[in-house]
Amino acid sequence: xxxxxxxxxxxxxxxxxxxxxxxxxxxxxxxxxxxxxxxxxxxxxxxxxxxxxxxxxxxxxxxxxxxxxxxxxxxxxxxxxxxxxxxxxxxxxxxxxxxxxxxxxxxxxxxxxxxxxxxxxxxxxxxxxxxxxxxxxxxxxxxxxxxxxxxxxxxxxxxxxxxxxxxxxxxxxxxxxxxxxxxxxxxxxxxxxxxxxxxxxxxxxxxxxxxxxxxxxxxxxxxxxxxxxxxxxxxxxxxxxxxxxxxxxxxxxxxxxxxxxxxxxxxxxxxxxxxxxxxxxxxxxxxxxxxxxxxxxxxxxxxxxxxxxxxxxxxxxxxxxxxxxxxxxxxxxxxxxxxxxxxxxxxxxxxxxxxxxxxxxxxxxxxxxxxxxxxxxxxxxxxxxxxxxxxxxxxxxxxxxxxxxxxxxxxxxxxxxxxxxxxxxxxxxxxxxxxxxxxxxxxxxxxxxxxxxxxxxxxxxxxxxxxxxxxxxxxxxxxxxxxxxxxxxxxxxxxxxxxxxxxxxxxxxxxxxxxxxxxxxxxxxxxxxxxxxxxxxxxxxxxxxxxxxxxxxxxxxxxxxxxxxxxxxxxxxxxxxxxxxxxxxxxxxxxxxxxxxxxxxxxxxxxxxxxxxxxxxxxxxxxxxxxxxxxxxxxxxxxxxxxxxxxxxxxxxxxxxxxxxxxxxxxxxxxxxxxxxxxxxxxxxxxxxxxxxxxxxxxxxxxxxxxxxxxxxxxxxxxxxxx
Length: 723
Ligand code: C2E
Ligand code: MG
Ligand code: MG
Description:
Elements: E1 3-6, H1 13-27, E2 33-37, E3 43-46, H2 48-53, H3 56-59, H4 64-68, H5 74-87, E4 89-100, E5 103-115, E6 121-130, H6 132-154, E7 158-169, H7 174-184, E8 185-190, H8 192-197, H9 203-206, H10 223-228, E9 232-241, E10 247-258, E11 263-273, H11 275-289, H12 299-312, E12 318-327, H13 329-336, H14 338-356, E13 361-367, E14 370-378, H15 381-396, E15 399-401, E16 404-406, E17 409-417, H16 424-441, E18 445-447, H17 457-471, E19 475-484, E20 490-501, E21 505-507, H18 509-518, H19 522-542, E22 548-553, H20 555-558, H21 562-574, E23 581-586, H22 587-591, H23 594-607, E24 610-616, H24 623-628, E25 633-636, H25 638-642, H26 648-663, E26 667-670, H27 676-684, E27 689-690, E28 699-700, H28 701-722
Parallel strand pairs: 17-18, 20-22, 22-23, 23-24, 24-25, 25-26, 26-27
Antiparallel strand pairs: 1-4, 2-3, 2-6, 4-5, 5-6, 7-8, 7-11, 9-10, 10-11, 12-14, 12-17, 13-14, 15-16, 19-20, 19-27, 19-28, 20-21
Helix pairs in contact: 13-14, 14-15, 17-18, 19-21, 21-23
The structure holds ligand C2E and magnesium ion (2 copies).
Ligand C2E binds next to β20, α18, β22, β24 and α25.
């Protein structure tokens, strides 16, 4: 705004001359445009700046308004000039906008009357300053202030400022500062939102409130942190308990002003209610760590909790992970529908929880029909197995779903930490391996054993050494006879692979055949066994001992078309009649890809090689399929035979298989004959052939040969006695 002020009068001409002289001397230095006008507004003089703007030579005597090209005409200027001249009172800081070079520029104009010695106004000094940049800055500031005001008025953050009066000495111990700030800080500014938090109608109604009594966002609770962080806080969360016990969450940002003497003067801040956001994040977290169907923790959370338990474990007890996989759950889905399947899964969680009793732990759903139970403190494998058995019994209780009674079973694998595994991934994998074993062997519960794990470090090491074993003659074959029941004649020998490992001793084929099958090593291994057995059979033949050999063929080999050519070539190379060779194939091997297996079997059969189905009764081959196979023999799995005397069911199974085989025109071999009573029982059932420890344990070729020769000698001796 222009200001007005009386001018100092010149008391003498000398004064005036001196003044003019002074004016001239600063003329060069002054950046302002200065004109001296007569009382009518015509230009009389001007300084250098004025001259550069509008040449004095041209404009002298012209009315100022016209000379400069002001938007206001000379007539419009006149009244104001006359007013100044009459009153002798100048006008300062008037704003004018003038177009310069096509651009509007802002000027501040001081109009200062000059007086003659009698006090009459004899002219007017115009001091003009270009304030375009300054005005722009001023405008920007005004605008930003307006923006700020609009922002804090409308923001949903609470904006506040407390003045600390008297200021608090920041060199005092923090506790004292906290107490003093709480008492002395008073609200001096806030927005509508903050006022409403405290039930005030507008900010003014709340101003003056003590910090100690405005505690909704609980900045007080963070004062110590605020002090420790150098009188500032950035996005710090606070929580406040509401009446009904729920928590309300806030996020505070604050900045204190500390003066040069180290006194805290003022604290500015914003508080944001983040309760909804927190709830939303909590919900997201819950969803990310829980299974939607059963609301049980999911794999991620289980992993985290086991990790934590491992870190906090004191070493006094064991932890156990149980992986529970439902058996034939798919059938429920297929017969009763997915909806029923879902309901069953939902009922499972509470049942499992009941069986945990007071044991600390967590139940999780890993996906599909797979669950996991982590027991964070058990005495060992025995206790974990007990829990598993209880769980199994609970799962086997009928479920009532939509009026139907449904029964289901499960397989549970157990692994222990730290006894077996010391990290989460290994523990999970071990429990998984154990679960598969329980499922495969249909035993319900199985505790992990490194020897059974196809991927255990020991097994992986074996795999690396298997290739070397073939090259370095560490492999050998044992032979076990198959004896015709009744006539006591030896029909042939089964060749059973053995690995004499340089450090581990004799390794069972059950330990390395599965590894060989999962890698390419099975091919050279099969070729080695075939070659060895065929050569042995031929050698026996050449020494007058006619005994066929049976070689086990793995499921992989059955999918390998080349095996047929290999067999033919080996038979030809050793000049062994094809009828002296028999191949044993397990049921499950044939079921991997029945049409392809059938092609290979057909081709082998056409070579004249005999075929038998091994481990019969453990797989799921269909009878119609069995009928199509070019096989001559069924071998009843030893597991049914060894216990058939004690177990009525096993006896029935053996008897049925014998009848079935005979009805299909096949020969039957019973494996696992361990005593004379079993042999007698098999004879009663009309089983054709027996194989087992009772007759002979598998032996190296020379021992098997000696056994057979002695047997024949004894037979001859007996015959000669008879004669
Ligand atoms: P398999 O073909 O069923 O062989 C019979 C298994 O029963 C042999 O175990 C034999 O030692 C065992 N056995 C024999 N008599 C009795 C008995 O009276 N009681 C009991 N409890 N067991 C008896 P082994 O030698 O450990 O072989 C295990 C399996 O390894 C074999 O089962 C066969 O599937 C596989 N296998 C052995 N040699 C080879 C081979 O050269 N190639 C392939 N692919 N697999 C082989
Ligand atoms: Mg066999
Ligand atoms: Mg067998």
